[in-house]
Write a structure and sequence with these properties.
The structure holds two protein chains of two kinds. Chain A is mainly alpha-helical. Chain A is built from three helices and no strands. In chain A, 66% of the residues lie in helices and 0% in strands. Chain B has a five-stranded antiparallel beta sheet, sandwiched between helices. In chain B, strands 6-9 form a two-stranded antiparallel sheet. Chain B is globular and about 70 Å long. The chains are: A mainly alpha, B alpha+beta. At the A-B interface, α2 and α3 of A face α6 and α10 of B.
Chain lengths: 90, 348
């Protein structure tokens, strides 16, 4: 219960700015504005391999450009869900 | 003091199952607490035989609701366990493996093996004992090598051939599972795309693969694997899939300095595996590490969706009231983090 309360407290404090930053990053990556869920869906679609040209790793986006955006987003969400997770990095 | 037989249909149903397998059972008693995982309920029982002996056993009552592509019916799971045991893999003796009409469920009954299965207790028992971790790691390497060197096709007593899982089919399976989620997860989508562009070379012959060999599915005593359990995901495929799964960060239970189950070094596992006749293929190991990370992340997200669906109708999927499923959603971001770290070399 205590852990859950801490998570909720972090979500309250860190959640809105985290989502705002991810939204900004995605708008820049995808070259267009929109609500965050829609931007995430657009990114997901652009990364689909099953509709991509044969041999391509994605449909329309360079994975190397997408990667740092996803890393930043995941780090922000991890800071809310499990801030000590990085300590185990090897 | 003899405990009275527990009353209730469950015990009688278990006894009928054992009788059908030819065991001469006087009665079955429930002996201890039950536990419930994501898809099976485990009950400790004692079997009193007509010759006056008492045999501790474990009954697993299986809910196949959330089925994976290659999840085995219990009868086949039992057959694989028997075959693995004959090949020298430490396993529990199978007493019954069949569908119970009384319980409307598949039931697997095995002899009870002494030891510890709860991962954090296994790790606590090792403590700072490097020798203990070495011994356990080598025990895992030997067990896996013996399994992977087993001559397929198997396995007497199968009701259908074991499924064959190749990397390309696995990519399709991951895509299908990801598409079934109500919310997109672009991290896993990126991973699937990158893995699809660098499929590993498969071994010359597919091997029998456990499919869920990890800290948590090992009965451990005296720093050795006494029995490998939970064989329902066994199939034919790449042995490196098993080795990668064992070493996923999620199964280290915060003992991240020991990649093998939180208790061992990778070099120990590789050495033991090769000494026992296994072939270590690093590129395939790396690929399956990423692929299985994605699989588990999607699996956790699916479990969370099932819980939410129970309390907030409108989502798609089978419902669940399991608190295990509720907690799964919080962990998805950990798997995303792990995957992104693993993907980095593919982008440089």
């Amino acid at each position: 219960m205590a852990n859950l309360c801490r998570i909720l407290a972090r979500e309250y404090e860190l959640g809105p700015p985290a989502r705002a930053q991810t939204k900004q990053d995605l708008e820049q990556l995808l070259d267009g504005a929109g609500p965050l869920p829609e931007l995430i869906a657009r990114l997901d679609h652009a990364l689909r391999v099953d509709t991509a040209p044969p041999g391509a790793a994605s449909h329309g986006l360079d994975p190397a450009r997408v990667y740092p955006v996803l890393v930043a987003d995941v780090n922000r969400r991890l800071a809310i869900a499990r801030p000590d997770y990085h300590e185990g990095d090897r | 003091m003899t405990r009275p037989a527990a009353r209730g249909p469950d015990v009688a149903a278990l006894q009928r199952l054992l009788d059908r397998q030819g065991h001469q059972v006087e009665r079955v008693r429930i002996d201890g607490a039950t536990s419930a995982g994501a898809n099976r309920k485990t009950v400790m029982i004692e079997i009193d035989t007509v010759d006056g002996k008492t045999r501790p056993a474990v009954a697993q009552i299986v809910n196949r609701g959330d089925t994976e592509l290659w999840m085995l019916p219990v009868a086949d799971e039992g057959a694989v366990v028997v075959a693995a045991g004959n090949a020298g893999v430490p396993v529990a003796e199978v007493l019954a493996a069949d569908h119970s009409r009384d319980l409307d469920a598949d039931v697997l009954i095995t002899a009870r093996v002494s030891g510890e299965t709860i991962p954090r207790r296994v790790l606590r028992s090792l403590g700072a004992d490097v020798g203990g971790g070495l011994s356990l790691t080598r025990s895992c390497g030997r067990a896996l090598a013996r399994l992977h060197r087993m001559d397929p096709p198997p396995v007497d007593g199968l009701t259908r051939p074991l499924g064959v899982l190749a990397p390309a089919a696995y990519i399709d399976h991951l895509t299908e599972r990801l598409d079934a989620l109500p919310h997109p997860l672009p991290t896993f989508r990126l991973g699937i795309g990158l893995l699809a562009s660098c499929l590993p070379e498969s071994p010359a012959e597919p091997a029998v693969v456990h499919g869920d060999f990890r800290n948590g599915n090992l009965i451990v005593a005296d720093h050795e694997v006494r029995a490998v359990v939970d064989w329902e995901l066994a199939h034919l495929g790449d042995p490196m899939e098993d080795l990668a799964w064992l070493c996923l960060r999620t199964w280290r239970f915060d003992h991240d300095h020991r990649p093998v189950g939180g208790f061992g070094r990778l070099s120990w596992l590789q050495a033991a595996y090769e000494e026992a006749g296994g072939e270590w293929r690093q590129e395939a190991f790396d690929w399956w590490t990423m692929a299985r990370t994605i699989w588990w992340g999607i699996g956790l997200a699916s479990q969370a969706v099932r819980f939410v669906e129970e309390h907030e109708p409108g989502f798609v999927g089978e419902r669940s009231t399991s608190i295990v499923h509720a907690a799964s959603g919080r962990r998805v971001v950990e798997l995303e983090y792990d995957l992104l770290r693993l993907l980095r070399p593919l982008l440089t």
